[in-house]
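Protein fold
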Amino acid sequence: MKLTTIMFTILFGLQASAQDLLRFEVAAGNADRLDCPVSLSIDQVNYNTDSLKLALFELKGKSQIPVPFQLETASGAKLWFILDGKTFKNTKRTFVLRKTLNPQHFTPGIKAHTQDGSLNLSFGDKPILSYCIETVNPPAGVSPLFKRSAFLHPVCSPGGEVLTRIQAPDHYHHYGIWNPWTLTFIGKREVDFWNLYKGQGTVRFAGLVSQVEGSVYTGFKSLQEHIDFGAVGIDAVALSELFDLRVWNLNSKRYMFDYASTLNTPLDSGILLAAYRYGGGIGWRATGKWTKDNCSLLTSEGKTRKDADGSNARWCVIEGESATVEGRSGILFLSHPANRMHPEPMRVWPMDANEGRGDMFFEFCPIRHKDWKIEKGNDYTLKYRLVVFDGKMTPEEAENYWQAFANPPEISNSNSKDEIIIE
């Protein structure tokens, strides 16, 4: 066989085994990006074929670098991937999505398993967080009214420092990271889902809706029910909550997870979430190690522990002393601009909280200054992103993380007409 015939046969075979679908650019915009999740709508792509599979590549000169990706198809088809490493502001990166007979296989970095009454997410042998799906009872001798499920604990730093606390003796109703509502009204009747000792209501895990594990993110959706103990007849569901959590598989030394809550009420009269300094959003009772003497807080508006309470912010970073190599650990809380009352009001315990110890409690509280009526037949969503770290986080880093969450990089079709080399 002639050499030209052989070369034609090889080229034809390569072209037949791969088909370029989309070539696009990701623009960093006016902020630096670090390990930034990005999504691309692919509703126009037939991604359900049995023969050819999807593959994603980043184009760098003549090099084509395989990129892990993950499909989300629940509400429109989205292709998720991580804009890996640091992408400087006002720069662009080019990618191509193609169909191929020989796709790259990427191992999920974050695993999920159920054990000891919790759904546990971990990176290798390092725990990230646990979501409680079985009811946790209070210590012996404490009122059983304080039992509950559906909360995050423990949440660990990359170095293994536990950053959450549950059932502190000063507040047995505090459960790690959680989001019950406090001063609510069904008609003229008050129902408190936060202060469990009142016996008016609670929040409970009602089932897993879905669970996903992939090379870009691992997470779950669950149903959480806000139960009204004072309903006529039997206990009744006052609020149904779809809780959506996903942990991103980053190549950095930090963990990052998204925390979304969608509320819906079956009550014909709806339910009023009355203005109060506690309630809903996302609350965090920090490790018992932290006091006013060894932890700090900074908001996007420059507020500190001394003056943050009651103010509004786009982000808030809290860090404190830890047993890690770095000596400090913390969490950056990001509020999405679509959230009610964004920039969101906060509840921050004062420096003299708990008999002067100054223990740390933080909450984004969207009803801090204004009532919120939840009407039947409507969904109401709050979205947050948390970055868990060891060491310190600069205000510039915090702002860049918020920009990536609130204003993700823009994706556009590439105008380049250079031929794509198929290898």
In short: The chain has two domains: 3-105, 110-406. The chain has two helices and 31 strands. Helices lie at 3-17, 395-406.
